[in-house]
């Protein structure tokens, strides 16, 4: 799969050490526009570190990270959102007592109205309409005026993605978007991700193998902080090394 | 409530959707409605002095609520702003012979400036540490006032600046007439309420609520959390300073107590009893606490003990406060319909 023409995100020889411990080492990959890529690997493989580097939460100790051709190694985390990289969290991270609409509307506002205490919120219809579009896109228009805390778990995860979409990101980093979801909710989330993937680059960390094999066009496998495989789902399934370290563990398709 | 179409398509909705529970409508009218309610107050309470106190402490609590109820910062030092507003109004009138309105304006500016200083120092600490830092800094202001007795009258409080009339150019307001005084104070409180309502309905109002709800997420969204908190702190100090300035005009003395830590506590108690994070709640809280104080102090010299017990009961059984609980019931009723 690798070389990708016109990549939006490129990492080269990316690595991160914590003192004597090497969490990630020598990872090189390029990601094109409008694709869904999954990152898998056993616990402790370096998936979270990789994600934290891509979202700016951590700075690499070696290698480079380029987004739209721009070196991101020294860019502060807050700028990542403005440049078009957004992430969702493994643990649901919302504004619990605000309505679904207000959650998204406030997140959109971060780009334009940070210290405006004179306009009327509801007169800024552009923001409200955009929030409604996003709620529509993540399938939550029916929950528009419900406080985030009162939503079902799956809906909260969708809202979490809605907040990430507020910054209109080109690259969406999703950390276990279906964590804690039942089969029905997972199905809805997969449909949502598929729709979002049409116009955006999505990287996601997941444990549910069946879902990943159906959803993503490309899979990266990390093991002990190294990239051991990078290919299409069928290539990954056929890969001996991957079968040995990962898939083999639970006899094939892993945790459904 | 869920009558909106549930289909999930990318097409943007062409028809703007209004919230069925039109809270936006309520927020548009909350300031005028509050002012109307406050207009009736002097005719419902046994004394005009009590009514004026409800206005002043209500505004004090509303200013505090901006920080505590809406931004989620528990300060224990707001007496510093109330007291500064009161002292500087008194000193401006008494020592410098300023027009009362000018003295009040300068006092409010000074209280906001003090809030900028105290806020800058305290805002980086969180939770109980934030409360302790604000308390310590407010105590500092208290001791400055105690020591500078040639200016402040020290323990005896500030006296000798009686305001009996306020010259407005065209008319002179007779402040000794209780109703005129009430309306004079209400003019300021009403303007402050309109301003606060506007701030809460603004995008900035959304940011402070977002910070209260989830600071980490607010930061990830791209908000400068520290700067926003500081701005909220200064605005809060401004309104508390105005309440202090009005209290100086009302009482014609400034007791040293207006800077003491229990005055800071009063803001917390009134806000919680009325309902933190509600627009009119602090007024309900101020009314409840002041009336209880009046009634209980007639019964027993240990009225503070009784008031304390009432406060504990509130925290345990009515955590959303009187007004907050009433609003909650009302919303539930309308939602069911």
Automatic annotation (TrEMBL), chain A:
GO MF, one annotated term: ATP hydrolysis activity
Please state every residue range assigned to the domain named ABC transporter.
9-249
An example Gene Ontology CC term for this record: plasma membrane
Q: Which UniProt keywords apply?
A: ATP-binding, Nucleotide-binding, Transport
* Pfam families for this protein: ABC_tran (PF00005), BCA_ABC_TP_C (PF12399)
Kindly give the SMART domains that the UniProt entry links to this protein.
Answer: AAA (SM00382)
Gene3D superfamilies found in the cross-reference section:
P-loop containing nucleotide triphosphate hydrolases (3.40.50.300)
Q: Is the keyword Transferase in the record?
A: no
What domain of life does the UniProt record list for this protein's source?
Bacteria
Q: Which family does it belong to?
A: Belongs to the ABC transporter superfamily.
PANTHER family from the entry? ABC TRANSPORTER ATP-BINDING PROTEIN (PTHR45772:SF2), CONSERVED COMPONENT OF ABC TRANSPORTER FOR NATURAL AMINO ACIDS-RELATED (PTHR45772)
Instruction: Please identify the protein, giving its name as recorded.
Output: ABC transporter related
Automatic annotation (TrEMBL), chain B:
Q: Which InterPro entries match?
A: ABC_transp_permease, LivM-like
Name where it's found.
Answer: Cell membrane
| UniProt entry keywords in alphabetical sequence | Cell membrane, Membrane, Transmembrane, Transmembrane helix
Give the signal peptide, or none.
Answer: none
Top-level taxonomic group: Bacteria
Q: What would you give as a GO molecular function for this chain, any one? A: branched-chain amino acid transmembrane transporter activity
Q: Which Pfam families match?
A: BPD_transp_2
Q: What is its main location?
A: membrane
Q: How does it sit in the membrane?
A: Multi-pass membrane protein
Please state what the protein is called.
Inner-membrane translocator
Organism source for this protein? Answer: Methylorubrum extorquens (strain CM4 / NCIMB 13688) (Methylobacterium extorquens)
The major lineage groups are: Bacteria, Pseudomonadati, Pseudomonadota, Alphaproteobacteria, Hyphomicrobiales
